[in-house]
Design brief:
Elements (H helix, E strand, L loop, with lengths): L3 H14 L3 H13 L3 H7 L2 H7 L8 H16 L2 H18 L17 E2 L8 E3 L12 H14 L7 H5 L2 H14 L3 E5 L2 H12 L5 E5 L4 H9 L3 E5 L4 H10 L6 E6 L11 H10 L3 E5 L13 H5 L8 E5 L10 E5 L1 H10 L1 H4 L6 H15 L3 H19 L11 E7 L1 H13 L2 E2 L1 E3 L9 E6 L6 H17 L4
Parallel strand pairs: 2-11, 4-5, 4-6, 6-7, 7-8
Antiparallel strand pairs: 1-2, 3-9, 8-9, 10-13, 12-13
Helix pairs in contact: 1-2, 2-4, 7-17, 9-17, 10-11, 10-15, 12-13, 18-20
Length: about 475
């Protein structure tokens, strides 16, 4: 049941705006958390009722308020009330554009293959976490984290250049560079920060970035923060990339930017072809390896290893918050000169407190496991092969290059959400991905596999997918 105070706040927004924004969220609660519709109608008037009948008559918020209250009354309104009305209008615009409300399930247990959701008695099989290798609860990794807290406290409480550099930060940066075969590395609070801090520090208005059209939002935002020109090439289209490289030969630096693995499709960038073009047209290559490091390649060295292109990429950014323990953190690794520049010019690095000792110690142990040769990588690959084959055998359409991130294509957004909800009711946790996260008409269920899943877990999930898919006419 939705808390009464939340319902009252949503109803207040609806009453202020004469629109159905609040009802949008209430409708979502009604459908997914079984809120009593009669109670909702008691708490509101015709605004909610008209929404639940799917009325499309939704006037502009500020225009409605001006008509009802007049300009003078608007001027005398509290600024927070005006802000809330502007927010309501923004939300309405998102709704009309087809955005689907995002909601968060609250876990009451560690991030494992089975998790407990608050409010539910039974645990659910977790097919949503990016804990690819299961290291988030690996005893060695957890013990290293706890030991670091006892010996060094929670964190440095400082930026690195002030007094925030601990010995374990330096140790981790050396291991990252060693793992990737690079000269140096630099730590960030997240890979989003690493992407935000790279392009502005390295590039000027005389440079150009050539960006894959489906690149992650953090790459897109990082490029926006720089003064460099931007050219977007069609996803995986090497001919289009070459045309754009030819068009910018008069620039100072040319940097090709791509995800290694694309997090909504599970497909792997054609890295050898990209590197061949970069060599031909004297361009640099940057890849984001968040869904590749520790995940693909025989030894977990990501897209370079998977594509037989080790050492050909100039700049690698990746995450500590996925396969490498799942806590938080990101990094850039490359030439010593590049890392020295980032320490002096990268704003997210300079103006943020550094990673906590517990996270750094856990990541150190995770890299020790990878550097020693990690059998979990082979187990993850076996789970991936098994699950993908079984899902295709029963009639589902999948995308991706045999990656443990498995998009199950549905198409219709509402149907994708219904499948995810049906599976959740059947004790399987998956996430429906809809517009704007993916293009319209390509809604999907995003499944993420772990090395710690058993074959029995996966077969059970396949059968539950079949049950939900047949019920909703997907297969």
């Amino acid at each position: 049941m939705v808390q009464t105070q939340h319902l009252k706040q949503l109803v207040r927004v609806a009453q202020l705006t004469q629109q159905s924004i609040a009802a949008d969220f209430l409708f979502s609660y009604k459908r997914t958390r079984k809120v009593c519709l009669a109670q909702l109608l008691q708490l509101n008037s015709r605004i909610l009722r008209s929404y639940l009948q799917r009325s499309d008559k939704r006037p502009n918020v500020m225009e409605s308020v001006h008509q009802e209250r007049g300009d003078n009354k608007i001027k005398n309104m509290p600024v927070t009330e005006i802000m809330n009305m502007c927010i309501a209008e923004r939300l309405e615009g998102l709704h009309q554009a087809g955005y689907r409300p995002m909601r968060e399930r609250i876990l009451g247990s560690p991030q494992e293959t089975r998790v407990r959701i608050l409010g539910r008695e039974e645990s659910v099989i977790n097919l949503s976490s990016n804990n690819y290798l299961g290291l988030a609860t690996e005893s060695e990794v957890v013990a290293a984290s706890l030991e670091a807290v006892v010996e060094r406290g929670l964190g440095a409480a400082s930026a690195r250049f002030i007094c925030g550099t601990l010995d374990i930060h330096v140790e981790l940066e050396k291991k990252i560079a060693q793992f990737h075969g690079r000269e140096a590395a630099i730590l960030y609070s997240s890979c989003f920060d690493a992407n935000a801090g790279l392009f502005d520090a390295l590039l000027t208005k005389d440079d150009v970035v050539l960006s894959d059209s489906l690149n992650h939002a953090s790459i897109i935002d990082g490029i926006r923060l720089s003064k460099a020109q931007k050219l977007v090439y069609k996803h995986f289209d090497l001919n289009d990339l070459e045309k754009k490289l030819i068009s910018c030969q008069n620039t100072r630096l040319r940097l090709i930017a791509t995800d290694g693995v694309f997090s909504m499709d599970g497909d792997v960038a054609p890295l050898r072809g990209i590197c061949d073009l970069a060599h031909k047209y004297k361009a640099l290559v940057f890849i984001d390896e968040c869904h590749a490091t520790g995940i693909i390649g025989k030894t977990g060295r990501g897209t370079e290893e998977y594509c037989n292109a080790l050492g050909r990429v100039h700049i690698i950014n990746s995450s500590i918050g996925k396969a490498l323990g799942g806590a938080s953190g990101g990094y850039t690794t490359g030439s010593r000169e590049l890392i020295n520049l980032l320490r002096q010019r990268s704003r997210p690095y300079i103006f943020s407190s550094t990673l906590s000792s517990s996270v750094v110690a856990a990541a150190n142990k995770a890299f020790d496991i990878l550097l020693a040769g990690c059998p979990l990588i082979n187990k993850l690959a076996a789970n991936t092969k098994y699950f993908r084959k079984r899902m295709e055998d029963v009639g589902f359409t999948l995308t991706g290059n045999n990656h443990p991130l498995v998009p199950v294509i549905v198409g219709d957004a509402e149907k994708a959400e219904e499948i995810a909800e049906t599976l959740f009711e059947d004790n399987v946790l998956v996430t429906a991905m809809c517009f704007p996260v993916v293009p319209r008409g390509t809604a999907r269920i995003r499944v993420v596999l772990s090395a710690k899943h058993t074959q029995q877990d996966l077969e059970l999930c396949v059968q539950k997918f079949v049950k939900a898919g047949r019920k909703l006419g997907v297969i």
